[in-house]
């Protein structure tokens, strides 16, 4: 003879499971967010601004510090009354540029971006290996007098 189970007996395990699942879900929801990845995907954007110093462009910061071999977001703001080309040999090659938008145009030399007069844009990059590299801001109207800065790529902590 088979034992008989009542319908209520079958509901008892399900009634216990619901609060356990709810408690587990709440515990997961209360966990703190994970720290930023070491690849730099969560790094806040860095801003590079271009102004005119007389007739010559001036980029700020003059020493642009970023983590090496990391995905970074570079916000570019051109306050000059003329287009300016940003160059950084190797850094602006297609293989290192993840995304570009706004008032930025990739220049044919594969080493820079033209920023439109009064333009703004965003470059998402994969930075080069640790080291110091030159970067420049050149006015289209005064190409013989570029601003020369330093791109400092430091090893990431950790």
TrEMBL record:
EfeO-type cupredoxin-like domain residues: 21-152
Signal peptide: 1-29
Official protein name in the record: EfeO-type cupredoxin-like domain-containing protein
Matches recorded under InterPro entries: Cupredoxin (IPR008972), EfeO_Cupredoxin (IPR028096)
Coiled coil regions in record: none
Pfam families linked: Cupredoxin_1
Keywords tagged on the record: Signal
Organism: Methylobacterium oxalidis
Keyword Amino-acid biosynthesis applies: no
């Amino acid at each position: 003879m088979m034992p008989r189970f009542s319908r209520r007996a079958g509901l008892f395990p399900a009634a216990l499971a619901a609060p356990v699942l709810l408690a587990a879900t709440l515990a997961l929801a209360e966990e703190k967010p994970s720290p930023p990845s070491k690849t730099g995907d969560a790094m806040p954007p860095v801003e590079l601004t271009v102004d005119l110093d007389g007739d010559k462009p001036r980029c700020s910061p003059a020493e642009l510090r970023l983590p090496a071999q990391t995905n970074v977001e570079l916000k570019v703001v051109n306050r000059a009354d003329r287009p300016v080309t940003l160059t950084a040999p190797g850094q602006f090659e297609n293989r290192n540029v993840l995304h570009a938008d706004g008032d930025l145009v990739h220049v044919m030399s594969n080493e820079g971006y033209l920023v439109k007069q009064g333009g703004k844009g965003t470059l998402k990059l994969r930075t080069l290996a640790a080291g110091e590299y030159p970067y420049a801001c050149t006015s289209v109207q005064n190409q013989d007098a570029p601003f020369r800065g330093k791109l400092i790529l430091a090893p990431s902590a950790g």
